[in-house]
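ok, trying the design again with the full structure, not the truncated one.
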């Protein structure tokens, strides 16, 4: 039997339509400020996708596109201005930033109540404490939403993550742990990853290595979440070899059309939430 495709694009479109309906009745549309420094090709595409989806969801965007030589001081001042602007509900800084900038200092300057990417230590700290943060990072949040469509109860599931980054692996591990999963986080220095992934009920690949996960890496009827975005021979592909695993897995997210659109939808859901929080409506 072929695996069920977890259609992230379809779920994301439903979420955007839902936000659009909710925002239509607000006094003014929620607004997301986007800080983009430089002209990294992938970043330009991601920002364009976010702006397009925001328009679909009835959310305004304000793009601050700065030269790649912009100083730390100028960016911090811009963040301060956005923090103080009552018409800006959410602020994101598109990563990665050019090398001369201190990313942590910039992220930490965003007001936790406008940190719709959920990267501020105030928000990650609350998540770690199993308390409700203002915002949870969009990619892990999107993954949890997709997982619930195929595995309504996560309690007791054996989950293996490949990748331990601050924006995917770490917050996702915490969310899964908070849902009573047994979580193994693997990374570039992990020995014999295959032996660990072969026991996973749920496997999440977020390492950025094209088609790394093959069918002998997975358990029969495993649920597979592919976060990777790679380009191979001019074609987009994930970290999981879709064609190789599709007969063995229970369900799988495609690349493109899986985690990517869900990440954008969750960012906009967070922006709508920011509006509600700031207007005392939550
Ligand atoms: P990162 O470079 O910050 O982290 C990569 C992680 O994978 C690290 O923990 C590293 O140790 C691990 N890793 C690298 N090579 C490995 C290997 N051979 N075996 C085991 N572990 C390995 O990357 P990131 O920002 O977390 O992104 C990872 C991938 O996910 C990239 O392809 C990125 O484009 C994609 N991504 C997609 C979305 C989305 O919305 N679809 C969002 C974020 C990231």
């Amino acid at each position: 039997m072929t695996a069920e495709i977890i259609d992230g694009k379809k779920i994301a479109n439903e979420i955007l339509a839902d936000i659009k309906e909710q925002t239509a009745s607000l006094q003014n549309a929620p607004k997301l400020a986007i800080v983009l420094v430089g002209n990294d090709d992938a970043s330009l595409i991601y920002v364009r996708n976010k702006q397009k989806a925001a328009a679909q969801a009835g959310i305004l965007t304000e793009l601050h596109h700065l030269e790649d030589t912009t100083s730390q001081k100028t960016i911090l001042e811009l963040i301060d201005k956005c923090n103080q602007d009552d018409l800006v509900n959410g602020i994101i800084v598109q990563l990665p930033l050019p090398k001369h900038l201190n990313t942590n200092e910039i992220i930490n300057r965003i007001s936790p109540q406008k940190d719709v990417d959920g990267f501020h230590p105030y928000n990650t700290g609350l998540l770690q404490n199993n308390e409700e943060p203002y915002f949870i990072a969009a990619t892990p949040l999107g993954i949890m939403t997709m997982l619930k469509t195929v595995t309504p109860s996560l309690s007791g599931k054996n989950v293996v993550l490949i990748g331990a980054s601050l924006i995917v692996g770490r917050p996702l591990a915490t969310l899964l742990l908070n849902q009573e999963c047994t979580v193994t986080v693997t990374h570039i220095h992990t020995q014999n990853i295959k032996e660990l992934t072969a026991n996973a009920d749920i496997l999440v690949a977020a390492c950025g290595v094209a088609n790394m996960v093959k069918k002998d890496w997975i358990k029969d009827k495993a649920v597979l979440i592919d976060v990777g975005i790679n380009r191979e021979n001019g074609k987009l592909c994930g970290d999981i070899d879709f064609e190789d695993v599709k007969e063995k897995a229970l369900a799988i997210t495609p690349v493109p059309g899986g985690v990517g659109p869900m990440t954008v939808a969750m960012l906009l859901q967070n922006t709508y939430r920011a509006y509600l929080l700031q207007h005392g409506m939550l």
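Keeping the full-length input from now on. The radius of gyration is 19 Å.
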